[in-house]
Structures are given as C-alpha cells and as structure tokens.
C-alpha cells in the first residue's frame, strides 16, 4: 500500500450527515448556556457619573503629559518569502523539490558495508526581512540543513561552517549553518540545502533494496518505491530557520521559521510526478 | 439587552469542518460505526464543556485529535460492549483492494494507526504528532517505521495486489 492509495482510501470515509446533525443537536440541547449573557443597563446617580468623568479626564491629561512622544519606537520586522509575508497560520511556498536519484548518496564503511543513505536538495533561498532601523540580519539553519553561499561574496559575515559528513559541496561555495548580512530589502544569492539521512541495514530492508558495495550500485527489490523513500526521508526530519534582526539601537529580535515539506495535491501530483513543496510558516 | 457571544455557533462551525477527521480517527480506533458516531457527539459536547480554544485555528485541530483519541481509549477501557454494525458495509468497500486496505490498517496496533493517519493523511510532522499523542517524536518515528514494515510484511504474506 503506498501513501496515495492510503490517502485516497481514507478520504472516502465520510461522516454520515445524520451523525453530524445529531452531534450538533446534542450540543444545542446541552445546558451549557454560558454563551448567552444578560446585561441590563443600570441606573446611576448623577454624582457617580460626574466622578467617573472627572477621573477619566485626569487620566487622559496625565497620559498626554507623560507619554514619551517620539522618544521610543518599537523595533519590529517582518519576514518576506519573495513578495509574500510569512505569517504563523498560512504556509508560504519557498520552492519545490524534484524527486530524482541524483540527490541520493550512499555511505560505506571501511569493510565496504553500507552504513547509510543521505539525500540533499538545494533551493534558492527567497527569504529577506523588512522593517525600520534594521542594521543586519543573521540567518541560521537549526537541525539538519545548511546554506550554500559564495566563498568570494563579501556581503556575508559571521559564517559558522557546517560540518555534517557527506554534504554536497560545490566549487566556489561554502557550506554554512549560519551567516550574517547587512540589511537588504531583497533576497540574497544563497541556496538553502535540505539534508537528510538514514543509517543502518534496517533501512534498506524496510524499503527493499540492496547495495553492491564494490560497484556502488543499488539493486532494487520488488515494490521498491523511491518516491516514497524520498518523501519519508525528507519529512522525517525537521527543518527550521532562525532569523535574528539587529537594530540600529543595538537591540535584537529573533523569529523562527518552520519549514513544511509536503507532496503536491492529488491533481498537480498527477501532472508533475513526485514533487515536494517546501513552504514556511512562523513558529508560534 | 442580550449579548450573544457565539460560542455554540463557533463550536458548530468547527464540528462541521472537522467532523470527517474526527469520524475517521474514531472509526479506525473503535472499528465500529455506532461508536464512531458516539465519539463524534462526545467530542462535540467536549467542545462546549471544556476549555477548548475555539477561536484559535492552530490549536483547535490538534485539540480535537487529542480529545478524539482519548475518548476512543476511554471507550475501549470501559466494559460496555455493544452490537456493532459492520464497518465494511458502511464504508462501502467497493473493491477487494479497499477491503484489504482496511483489514491491513485494522491489523496494526492502535498507536501505529493513529500515527500513520496523522502523518500521511493530515500531514503532521513527527514532533506535532508527538505533542498531540504526548510521546517523543522519536517514538512516533519508530511507530511509523514499524507500521510501514508491518504493512509490508502483511502484504508479502498475503501476496496481495499491492505488490
């Protein structure tokens, strides 16, 4: 059974209309009437009205005198993914991952035994910050994953190198877990690399494949489903990005983006087979 | 003057929106249609009676899942037994494949079924499922791994259509 047949099967299970209506009728019959409040207008004497008005006036005058107009401005920033602002309720699409064998890596020990598989995918990092008085912004990948930045680009400072084994390194690029850049109202030329791995022989058995260590080739058993394995691996790990804005007054503010990796919906999945959508949402 | 806060209307809206999800979880936990319907009613009442986060979409869905699973557990613990209408009849399992899928799912331990559903159908991450089910993400991961393995072994034994 693959995920699609499972999902299709589950989607066919629907609540009988009568059951929903019964449940709602049950709610309406319950005596939880806290929803309705009765508020009756009260009569007040002229004295109490005058006293209340006087107190309110005093509070208002004191507020006008002591409010620090213009002395303090709250430092805030928003995170953009391209033209869209990232929020905490609707995921914003960052890019797509195409399920291809080129992303798969095989790891062997000295005895030529398979120790694990890795997968790495890159996508253009479309994130940038918007706000007033921002001096610099630091982007850090938490958990698995890293950034690939140009090793000759002087815009990036405070780089913390990513030292996970078996990551893809390209000529002219450095792999960093974190970097700082001056404030800019557009995305930097940076790649976000999502890295995932699974270790142990059990993994091969579960997905029904063998590896010929000498040739470094995979031998596929019946029912081997690379797309499922690809999906399982990328969704088993959690990826998030911590973004810290440093403001001109020296204060900092940090927000965390959670990355969501999911399959395209049924219709578009049929058109472009095995594409995973990567989107981001602000963590609570 | 009467002020309507709208709690019931809000709860009704939520129940209509998530009734299928509650029903699916209840079906695969209880294996009985009547029980699943009762669970739906219980969850609807709990929405009103308990301190449910009615106005927060991000909390309400996990809250409903948690309450549904707990209600199913309570029902299982109770000595109360009832006649059950065959779910197979109700679910209109048209093909032998559908019937087999249902049988395979029902052969899995309950936690595996819930984890499988939340991961593959509702699209929750391991950590989110861990939070909902009050387990570590690693535990949920191993449930999913074992569920897949078990499904595979069931399939192989049966020499079924899924190969």
What's the quick description here?
By secondary structure, chain A is an alpha+beta fold. Chain A contains six helices and 17 strands.
What does this 3D model show about the protein?
- The complex is a heterodimer of chains A (284) and B (163).
- Chain A is of the alpha+beta class.
- Chain A has helices at 3-11, 17-29, 46-66, 201-207, 226-236, 266-271; strands at 36-38, 77-81, 84-85, 92-98, 104-108, 114-124, 127-131, 134-143, 146-150, 156-161, 173-182, 190-199, 209-212, 217-220, 239-247, 252-263, 275-282.
- Chain A is 24% helix and 41% strand.
- In chain A, the strands form three sheets. In chain A, strands 4, 5, 6, 8, 9, 10, 11, 12, 15, 16 and 17 form an eleven-stranded antiparallel sheet that branches.
- In chain A, a hairpin with a 4-residue loop joins strand 13 and strand 14 (217-220).
- The model of chain A is unreliable at 33-44 (pLDDT under 50).
- Chain B is mainly α.
- Chain B has helices at 7-30, 33-49, 57-77, 87-90, 96-107, 110-121, 126-133, 137-158; one strand spanning 2-4.
- In chain B, helix 1 crosses helix 3 (57-77).
- Chain B is globular.
- The chains are: A alpha+beta (284), B mainly alpha (163).
- At the A-B interface, helix 1, helix 2, strand 1 and helix 5 of A face strand 1, helix 1, helix 2, helix 5 and helix 6 of B.
List its salient traits.
heterodimer, A: 284 residues, alpha+beta, three-stranded antiparallel beta sheet
Overall geometry of chain A? flat
Alpha carbon gap, first and last residue of chain B: 67 Å
How does the overall form of chain B come out from the CA principal axes? Answer: globular
State Rg of chain A.
Answer: 28 Å
Helicity range of chain A: 10-25%
Unreliable spans of chain A: 33-44
Largest interface: A-B, 45 and 56 residues
Fraction in beta strands of chain B: under 5%
Q: Let me know the number of strands of chain A.
A: 17
Order of helices and strands of chain B, N to C? EHHHHHHHH
Estimate the helix proportion of chain B, in percent.
Answer: over 70%
Major beta sheet summary of chain B? none
